[in-house]
Target: GIY-YIG domain-containing protein
Amino acid sequence: MADTVFIYALKCPMTMHVRYVGKTKNLKKRLYSHIYEAKKGKQTHRHHWLSALAVIGQEPIMEVLEEAPLDQWQERERHYIRLYRSTGWLVNGTEGGDGLTPEKAREFWQNPEYRRKQVEAATGERNGFYGKTHSAETRKVLAEKCRHEVPWNKGKSGIYSKELILNNRLQKHRKPIARYKEGQFVDSWESARALCRELGWDRRHVQRVLQGTKHFNTIKGYTLAYTQSPAT
Model:
């Protein structure tokens, strides 16, 4: 058929759910571009999903839904997006016939109703991974990837505003810690992190004592408790 485009679907290779509907003239190139863009770290639902597949060595399955005339593809794409949107699995950011730009993505996510629907569509039994667990082999692959992944901000400077840095230094979320020996106050610290850094204590042990975890009443003979403010 002359002057046509393919309306296609990307399916999850594990559940066979249709996750994305799009259009293209060249199926092979479009599939490659999807995978390549996901590796570049683009921030859309589609790219996050494709990246998650890549981590476990999987790729989406591309299936042709229809070969549509050039002057009708927008409506046909919208038709299939409406059809598969009802399943709750679709990651398309628009209703079709246009394409999603970063500006449009931000506009969508500023809408509380849109965010609510997206969350509901991936919650509980609607989530393709609901009730499942990763195999030992998959967990090993994920751990290995994280171990060798270079943080995106490593070696970069000037990427955070002065306001953000100042706000983080205020440590509003941190709670001062008081240390006691046989019921008598010894000293206090601005946070559990500061205490552990200064004394070389294990943070997990400290947190368990603070939370009152069974069998973790003391640490090195001391009891700990949150306090209103550190001693000066």
Remarks:
- DSSP finds nine helices and six strands in the chain.
- Strands lie at 4-11, 18-24, 61-69, 177-181, 184-189, 223-226.
- The chain has two domains: 4-126, 177-226.
- The mean pLDDT is 82.
